[in-house]
């Protein structure tokens, strides 16, 4: 494994002057922080279309997310292969890079693709989830299937299970009030993906979610959430530029409780006409480009870069076609920033940066590892 990853970064010529010892340790793809999630599901009928569109749940529910101690992850597919530690500066602005560098595949396998949003069948989803042997075992009238704006398909249940008294967890790996274990819920989630038929998605994270109710007497029951990402050439198809109307390029989120599957959000891409890029921007060059433009970028000295990933980026070409490019994603940590006064936060607002590894174009995108903390 070490030799394989050394070959990856020998090929992309990561400079030794910014690289410390190769780390052999794997890490969870999506470390759990205090994440505020939605816990209910609403449906709106589109005028004249007769189609349900699933919206965000009411805001009077917050969700405490706890990682199950035995949660599966994608450690076998990824490894921290390098560690970059340096400070970059330009025009009086300084930013620290203390970042693991992660690559899931061989950089030489990456391509440029034409892409189209994958089309999903509501009838197929209804058969899998609400049919005679459907994977949702609750009141079918509580459920809806719809197509959100942008791309993909949603399935959701109007009401989550709740209890008159505060539910408790049966033990390690259980959501509060659930008889279903984390492992059984994961198996149900995997069975859905198998039944749906997509073979290019990879499981990346699983969480035990215990909602906290505010302003009501009952306490919602817990549930489990599992996330999968579409892969191409061994790399995640995950980042999206601001030119594309889509929350993510391609992902699958499944929620499970004692009734079976209670929520699905799925989007994906069909890829075609792949070609090898004539030249890829290497990591050293990418960091140099950022440093030269630093005074014009949104990075802040209070939000260090903590992770650099080689993955795929979805963008829209001038002719309107969707294109998939290799990209470097620079992920920031806002934990320190969010402990500072609000005035400082506003002056130093920052997000992740995605750099097209073929053209060098840079895009601001939502931070991948948000730190939800209350500023004092």
Any descriptors?
single chain, 376 residues, mainly beta, TATA-Binding Protein, 2 domains, 20 strands, 13% helix, disordered N terminus
Explain this structure.
By secondary structure, the protein is mainly β. The protein has two domains: 2-30 and 78-113 and 274-365, no CATH class; 42-71 and 119-272, YycH protein, domain 2 (TATA-Binding Protein, 2-Layer Sandwich), CATH 3.30.310. It contains five helices and 20 strands. It has helices at 2-11, 122-130, 182-196, 283-292, 342-347, and strands at 42-45, 52-55, 61-66, 80-90, 93-103, 112-117, 143-146, 153-157, 162-163, 201-213, 219-220, 223-232, 235-240, 251-257, 260-267, 269-275, 305-316, 322-332, 352-356, 362-365. The strands form three sheets. It has a 16-stranded mixed β-sheet that branches. A two-stranded antiparallel ribbon has the order 1-2. A hairpin with a 2-residue loop joins strand 14 and strand 15 (260-267). The chain starts with a helix and ends in an 11-residue tail after the last strand. Mean pLDDT is 77; it is low at 1-77.
